[in-house]
Amino acid sequence: MVKKPKKKRESGGPAGSPGKRVPDDVIEAHVYEILRRLSAEDPAIAKRVGEIALDLLADVDPEQIAKSIFYDLNSLDVEELYCSSGRTRDGYVDPGERARDMFEEAVEPYIEKLKNYLELSMDDEAKAVCMGILKGLYKVGEKSINEVVDYAADAPSNSFSEVLDMWKEGNTDPEKLREMDQFVKNNFPEWYREK
């Protein structure tokens, strides 16, 4: 493939097209690469891109996270469970074990989100994400109508404990630890564990 030589950029549009506007869908398709190149060219732009990214990350809604987890876990396909468990070509796969795997796969994106906030030291946002995950898992454990979740009966409470422990390990603020402890005690008394 032969590349055309780049024309000198003139004001009003992309190289060689004065006055032409690039369609939004084209920009949208290449936004990552555009931002990467702009950031590499100008440290001030790189800094501003980082600031905007952090601003976007700061918008955390625990209720929305809880609803999303509840929806995702209640949408697990029991037919997929049946097709991928029991007697298979590779031997026997326990349906309960496969159901737990499916459950964990559905929760994993939320756990990754929590890990990202912890790694960025965005403590308030990490706390809000954790609260949303805990609410969603508790609701699934108490009100799920999904057969896959029924096969993995202990998965909601086990995941709840793992998420809470992960958040606690990533948090050193005694006040936030007390707040989370009180939140769990007040909202999920059946799943509350003394320190």
Summarize the structure.
67% of the residues lie in helices and 3% in strands.
Strand tally: 2
Shape: globular
Number of helices: 10
Using only C-alpha atoms, the radius of gyration works out to 23 Å
Query: If strands are numbered along the chain, what order do they take across the biggest sheet?
Result: 1-2
What is the rounded distance between the termini? 65 Å
Low-confidence stretches: 7-13
> What structural category characterises the helix and strand content?
mainly alpha
The fraction of residues assigned to DSSP E strands is under 5%
Q: Which H/E pattern describes the elements?
A: HHHHHEEHHHHH
Mean pLDDT over the full residue set? 86
Outline the structure in words.
With 195 residues, the protein is mainly alpha-helical. The chain folds into 2 domains: 24-53, no CATH class; 60-191, no CATH class. Helices cover 67% and strands 3% of the residues. It is built from 10 helices and 2 strands; from the N terminus they run αααααββααααα. The protein has helices at 24-29, 31-41, 43-57, 62-74, 78-83, 95-119, 123-143, 147-151, 155-169, 174-187; strands at residues 86-88, 91-93. Strands 1-2 form a two-stranded antiparallel sheet. A hairpin with a 2-residue loop joins strand 1 and strand 2 (91-93). The protein is globular and about 65 Å long. It starts with 23 loop residues before the first helix and ends in an 8-residue tail after the last helix.
